[in-house]
Design a protein that fits this description.
By secondary structure, this protein is α/β, with parallel strands linked by helices. About 35% of the residues lie in helices and about 15% in strands. The chain has a seven-stranded mixed β-sheet with strand order 2-10-9-8-5-3-4, with helices on both faces. Strands 11-12-14 form a three-stranded antiparallel β-sheet. The protein has a two-stranded parallel ribbon with strand order 1-13. The protein is globular, with a radius of gyration of 21 Å. About 45% of the residues are buried. The structure holds pyridoxal-5'-phosphate. Pyridoxal-5'-phosphate binds next to helix 3.
């Protein structure tokens, strides 16, 4: 790595692979002989058309998305999906089950209440979101139009390690911070959505992967721009799409496929997370936020229990080129986000710092020597 680059542990927008950035840099001024950048060209041009189709096809290949699913490139972030999902999918019994395991699923629940009956199937607020419910802990309704959950809780650092069984009720998941981090069986879901700025591209792009038959039954008040069916019909180009982000996304898809796909990413991500969790566990000065079985591979959350010491950790780490380790304002403490673009060297460097900091400020280690 060039010396000018830091190890960036931000939760989103987050680091991108150097190879992807260099490719974009190389193509910036003159994209494939057009004499202009992707930022400057018409979204209706044949050149851009090729880019968006490649982005879709590569994404289909990477995530093994069947033909009866649409892949949409939208705007408004994952947060807009909090409204778009109920507007389009609360269409039979006007009722949906929501599972609350963190801040974003909480906001999604509040938003959905505007459009129909919301039944909370589980609420982790009482245990400060340290826990992912087991199947037995979910109280699902048979007549819900869909069940919504958040597969990885970016702020609290907890993650579902199974797909809930909804007994045939369509399943919707916010996968903003775990998409493409491991294999996923798309056919288990009616709809998946992700703000792309965590693990896929710069901010400004939202990915929706949905079974096509779920679209076309939206509530009559649905705003023009929030109809899935319209976006499917217009191949995400009803209006001007976020062209440059789609281009960056396509470069990221190529990179992920070259690296060995999501199967290889899962291996690397597990190795990175195991290493960091294991290192943190060696020193009593660090307290991990999540219960062991609920830990996220993507966002590792921890604290010392002393706010001043937490601040010192973040400050000292920064001096060593390990940046954006401050936890979310809702949790305090520290958070290291280990998305696909964070390589093992970054995590090893962080672990060395974790050890050094503990020795300097944290008293005794569990381990000898
Ligand atoms: C970041 C995040 C969001 C919000 O995303 P925006 O694109 O900023 O709207 C929603 N859900 C999860 C799980 C996230 O990590």
């Amino acid at each position: 790595m060039e010396k000018v680059r830091v190890y960036n542990f931000a939760a989103g927008p987050s680091c991108l692979p150097l190879a992807v950035l260099l490719k974009a840099q190389k193509e910036l001024l003159n994209y494939e002989g057009t004499g202009m950048s992707v930022m400057e060209m018409s979204h209706r041009s044949p050149v851009f058309s090729k880019i968006i189709h490649h982005a879709e096809n590569a994404c289909r290949k990477l995530l093994h998305i069947p033909d009866d699913y649409a892949v949409l490139f939208l705007q408004g972030g994952a947060s807009t999906q909090f409204s778009m999902v109920p507007l389009n999918l609360m269409n039979k019994n006007k009722k949906a089950d929501y599972i609350i395991t963190g801040n974003f699923s909480n906001i999604a629940t509040t938003e959905a209440k505007k459009y129909g009956d919301v039944h909370v199937a589980y609420d982790g607020t009482v245990n400060h979101f340290i826990h992912i419910p087991t199947q037995d802990e979910l109280s699902l309704s048979a007549d819900a139009d869909y069940v919504h959950y958040c597969a990885n809780n970016t702020i609290y650092g907890t993650q579902w390690h199974y797909v809930p069984d909804t007994h045939g009720v369509p399943l919707v998941a916010d996968v903003s911070s775990c998409i493409a981090s491991e294999p996923i069986d798309v056919t288990k879901f009616a709809l998946l959505y992700a703000g792309a700025q965590k693990n896929l591209s710069p901010a400004g792009l939202t990915i929706v992967i949905m079974r096509k038959d779920m679209a076309g039954h939206e509530q009559s008040i649905t705003p023009l721009m929030l109809s899935y069916q319209r976006m499917i019909d217009k191949e995400s180009m009803y209006n001007t799409p976020p062209c440059f982000q789609i281009y960056m996304f396509s470069l990221m898809m190529d990179w992920l496929l070259e690296q060995g796909g999501v199967e290889e990413m899962a291996k690397r991500n597990k190795e990175k997370a195991d290493l960091l969790y294991h290192t943190l566990e060696q020193y009593p000065v660090y307290r991990l936020h999540a219960e062991k079985d609920s830990r996220s591979t993507m966002n590792v959350t921890f604290r010392t229990g002393d706010e001043k010491l937490d601040a010192l950790f973040v400050e000292e780490a920064k001096k060593e080129g390990l940046v954006n380790l401050k936890g979310h304002r809702l949790t305090g403490g520290m958070r290291a986000s280990l998305y696909n673009a964070m390589d093992i060297d970054g995590v090893k460097t962080l672990c060395t710092f974790v050890e050094k900091f503990a020795r300097e400020y944290g008293g005794q280690s569990h381990v000898q020597g």
